[in-house]
Design a protein that fits this description.
about 475 residues; alpha+beta; 19 strands
Length: about 475
């Protein structure tokens, strides 16, 4: 008998010392799991702080504009992830406190600990139309205003950035080719899309200036005074981001000379925006034409937003059943192996047929219109059966199933109710399975990889560690 437990994520090894301590009551299992989750979030925060330190150092040392733009983009992404992980950690702490208060012995009210299944949410084919003036686009008059833009997309603590795109009046749309998949979304997800822009013509001091200034001051002021000045100007190990080699401090990133990205537009997409097709959504525009990072946006974003709840892609319950077939006045019971997945209960002749990918003997629909109930025990046989009723056209068709024992019957009923609960929250995502293609690994920017720079090493380290 297989039943998916949606709430269990960490496990304690059977027979281990930790398991014995939990059984003896000396250590609460919930505290152990909470500690593991807190530690995991803290590791992610520490990792992003190290990445931010690297981005600051790279930005301060950049000698090429394209390299500086990529480093500034990485800095924005790291800061956003740090803030998201901090919010997630705070939310976990609050949930732990609320859980302990709700589980007090004096609290006798029933608690519904049923949770909806998670799912994948994918956004792809991002297009943001531009609205240039006729004199700029058709007559090619005026200054060639050029900006570097990218999108930051967030669902909960998951944050991804798109590739950087150079935009000028020769483009009618800002196109981001790479699709992004969020793997831990719930039905109440909010996908925040932020569009950042930076004017490439904007003058900025190259990163070598502070180091040159620090060297001159160090030599002119003497060894001891010069070290203090150099430590202040050099965003290295003694900067506000780091405490000189120990654990990093979560303080705002130091001001580093170089390009600065600004929020140009944003929107939030929810479950109601999900549709297995290309759709247009409204954008909220920030700034105005006086801003250096300004681009004439049309005020909308086009994309394909799809979702795959786990209840549609994974087995939620599996086990042996008996199927009732009425032959004349006498019922005939046939042994089957049932698998609850998506909007169907697949019925196989044997359990081995599932692994062998043999077609099921027959299928029973399980959707929002299906009615399922556990009947009373039969007085003669003492067996409790499960009846599944569907309407096909104008006719009702009922299937009767029997589990191996009472406990299995209860597990099957719980699995069915959980499936209906998930369908009610994920709504249109459970009508049909939407297609989601996993994005291919992103390549580092060509202008950076040629130099074997620190940025390239940072990105390679990110792919290896995550």
């Amino acid at each position: 008998m297989f039943c998916r437990n949606q709430t269990t994520r960490a496990t304690v090894a059977r027979g281990s010392a930790m398991e014995m301590e939990i059984k003896r009551g000396r250590f609460r299992e919930s505290i152990f799991f909470d500690t593991l989750q807190d530690s995991d979030i803290q590791k992610k925060i520490d990792y992003e702080i190290r990445m931010r330190d690297g981005a600051c150092k790279l930005l301060a040392a950049c000698s090429q504009r394209e390299q500086a733009l990529e480093a500034a983009k990485s800095l924005v992404t790291c800061n956003a992830r740090i803030m998201a992980y901090m919010a997630e950690l705070q939310k976990m702490k609050e949930a732990q406190v609320m859980q302990r208060m709700a589980r007090r012995p004096s609290d006798s009210s029933p608690i519904d600990d049923r949770l909806p299944c998670k799912g994948k949410v994918a956004i792809s084919d991002l297009r943001i139309p531009l609205m240039w003036k006729d004199t700029e686009y058709f007559k090619n008059k005026g200054d060639l205003h050029r900006c570097a833009v990218f999108c930051l997309l967030q669902v909960g603590a998951e944050i991804y950035d798109t590739d950087m795109v150079m935009v000028d009046r020769t483009l009618t749309d800002i196109c981001f080719e790479n699709g992004i998949v969020f793997s831990e979304a719930g039905p109440g997800f909010q996908l925040k899309l932020d569009l950042y822009s930076c004017c490439t013509e904007e003058e900025f001091s190259m990163g070598s200036t502070p180091k040159k200034l620090a060297s001159k001051l160090s030599s002119s002021l003497g060894r001891s005074s010069g070290k203090k000045v150099r430590a202040t100007l050099d965003p290295g190990g003694s900067s506000p981001v780091s405490n000189g080699g120990g654990s990093p401090l979560l303080l705002p990133a130091p001001t580093v000379p170089g390009p600065k990205y600004h929020l140009l537009a944003h929107t939030t997409l929810t479950l109601t925006s999900v549709q297995d097709s290309f759709r247009t959504h409204d954008l909220t525009i920030s700034g105005n034409e006086e801003c250096s990072f300004w681009l004439p946006l049309y005020g909308s974003v086009c994309c394909r937003l799809a979702a795959q709840p786990l209840c549609m892609t994974q087995q939620m319950m599996a086990g042996c059943l008996k199927f009732k077939q009425q032959v004349g006045d006498n019922p005939n019971w046939t042994k089957i192996y049932g698998v609850l997945k998506g909007t169907n209960l697949f019925c196989y002749n044997r359990a081995e047929d599932v692994e062998a990918k043999v077609e099921p003997a027959f299928t029973i629909a399980i959707n929002k219109e299906t009615r399922i109930r556990a009947t009373d025990k039969d007085l003669q046989s003492g067996v409790q059966s499960i009846s599944i009723t569907n309407r096909y056209g104008g006719e009702e068709v009922m299937h009767t199933l029997v589990a191996e024992n009472h406990d299995d019957t209860q597990r099957w009923m719980q699995a069915f109710w959980q499936q209906f609960y998930d369908m009610s929250l994920w709504k249109q995502c459970c009508d049909d399975l939407m297609k989601i293609e996993m994005p291919s690994p992103r390549k580092p920017p060509a202008t950076i990889s040629k130099q074997g720079s620190l940025y390239h090493e940072m990105e390679a380290g990110r792919r290896n560690e995550i």
